[in-house]
Specification:
Blueprint lengths: L1 H8 L9 E6 L2 E7 L2 E4 L5 E4 L14 E5 L3 E2 L2 E2 L16 E3 L6 H14 L7 E6 L2 E7 L3 H11 L7 E5 L5 H6 L5 E6 L6 H5 L6 E4 L15 E5 L5 E5 L12 E2 L2 E3 L2 E3 L7 H14 L7 E4 L4 E5 L5 H25 L3 H9 L5 H13 L8 E4 L7 H8 L4 E4 L6 H10 L5 E4 L8
Parallel strand pairs: 11-12, 12-13, 21-22, 22-23
Antiparallel strand pairs: 1-2, 2-5, 3-4, 6-7, 8-13, 9-10, 9-11, 14-15, 16-23, 17-18, 19-20, 19-21
Length: 429
């Protein structure tokens, strides 16, 4: 057993070169491997890049773009000198904990994909396995973190919390309630580092350019996928065309000579949640359906093969996460921790029964939420899942042959549900 545990602490050697060049047509892109001199468990400084890849035993290396610029069609991709995660230095690792692994840094990177669209107010994304467990924005960074944490305090365990504002002591002290692998922020206010460093293995990253994320909103980059046979798929990265509610499209389609439109138009608050939810969707693995409410995720369904299935999974998760939130706020315990105490005769069963009743009565916090789908609904069954839970507005790209059925499902709801189109798909695989 000790050998199994040791593999997670091992800092692997990697045999990737110090520099990599990629020639695309007449353009040469030059990348430099990122390494850091950090102490190992004995305190000895070791110069090394990534600890390992997605799993122990996988060699991996992180490279920063340092030369060359590329245009794909009419799209100019990001230039060198704009590094965020790939430009991390030892000085920015305010507490290294241990050399980072691939997932630690790609979690931060994927959070930045989301947060670059949420720069207008304090926001926090807590990531787990390159998907958000909770995303929220609020009037203060401490409130944004607390809401993101409470959105899914189970999946957040061992995750990466990324904030788009300086991290203050209040927020840092809140983070003591949760085991995190990584915290990243543009800077840290007085007292924040002292509180965070109580967790000795926590990786604390300062990425000053997070404060400049608004300038990365429309940046595109080269996305590279390696195939089993050694082949490559190159694509320009995706983008989010929805900047404000004005960028959304009315849900309208014609079928057999009849024009179908929603009976009810979305409120300004619902439109704000659509813009927020579509930003979150940029960082969620497809197929996905998410529910958001008041600038916070309620249920996140990721990576499923069918849309109605992922809509249901997101509902189930919303109920479970809501029960956990109620339990935490009332008793300072996760739902399963309270259940275990009851099993051992250490707590009154009525406590968990009350939580179950409240979660069912509140329908997991879903009534009044906005349902977001990263692609159109091929059938109305996915829409019906959200309508049954009391969502008030639905947003999806539109373009299905059966869009008229989805609009009809909204109009047949009591009360009617609003719908808008985004006009673009947001697949992420």
């Amino acid at each position: 057993m000790s050998d199994i545990k040791a593999q997670y602490r091992t800092v692997m050697d990697d045999h990737f070169p110090a520099e990599v060049t990629l020639t695309i047509g007449d353009t040469v892109l030059r990348y430099k491997k990122r390494t850091w001199k950090l102490p190992d468990e004995s305190g000895q400084l070791i110069e090394k890049g990534l600890r390992y890849g997605e799993n122990p035993g996988q060699e991996a290396a992180l490279y920063e773009l340092v030369g060359g610029g590329l245009s794909v069609g009419q799209v100019r991709l990001i230039e060198p000198g704009r590094g965020l995660v790939s430009a991390l230095s030892e000085a920015q690792m305010l507490q290294a904990g241990k050399h980072p692994g691939k997932t630690n840094l790609t979690d931060v990177d994927n959070a930045l994909h989301i947060l670059r669209y949420l720069t207008d107010r304090p926001a926090c994304a807590i990531m787990k396995h390159n998907n958000p467990s909770g995303v929220a924005r609020a009037a203060s960074i401490s409130e944004a973190y607390q809401r993101a944490f409470l959105a899914d305090l189970i999946a957040a365990f061992g995750g990466a919390a990324v904030l788009n504002r300086p991290l203050d002591r209040t927020t840092a002290e809140m983070m003591q309630e949760l085991y995190l692998e990584v915290v990243a922020a543009p800077e840290y206010e007085e007292g924040a580092l002292e509180a965070l460093k109580k967790a000795k293995n926590l990786r604390i990253l300062q990425i000053p350019r997070i404060a400049e994320l608004a300038g990365y909103r429309d940046e595109r980059f080269l996305d590279i996928k390696s195939l089993l046979d050694g082949g490559l798929v190159l694509q320009a990265s995706s983008f989010n065309r929805i900047k404000t509610p004005a960028d959304l499209l009315p849900a309208r389609c014609a079928y057999k000579g009849q024009v179908y439109e929603p009976q009810r138009q979305p409120t300004p608050a619902e439109l704000e949640d659509v813009v927020f939810g579509w930003a979150v969707e940029q960082g969620v693995s497809s197929n996905s359906v998410i529910y958001v409410k008041d600038g916070c995720t309620v249920g996140i369904g990721t990576g499923e093969q069918d849309r109605v299935g992922v809509a249901r999974i997101a509902v189930d998760k919303a109920y479970t996460k809501y029960a956990n939130k109620l339990c935490w706020l009332a008793h300072g315990l996760k739902y399963d921790e309270l259940a275990l105490r009851i099993l051992r005769g250490q707590a009154d069963p009525a406590l968990i029964q009350a939580i179950d009743r409240q979660a069912q009565q509140d329908r997991g916090g879903l009534p009044g939420s906005v349902m977001i789908s990263d692609a159109f609904f091929p059938f109305r069954d996915g829409v019906d899942v959200g309508v049954a839970q009391g969502v008030s507005c639905i947003a999806h790209p539109g373009g299905s042959l059966r869009d008229w059925e989805s609009i009809e499902a909204c109009n047949q709801a009591d009360p009617p549900v609003a719908m808008v189109f985004t006009g673009q798909r947001a697949f992420k695989h």
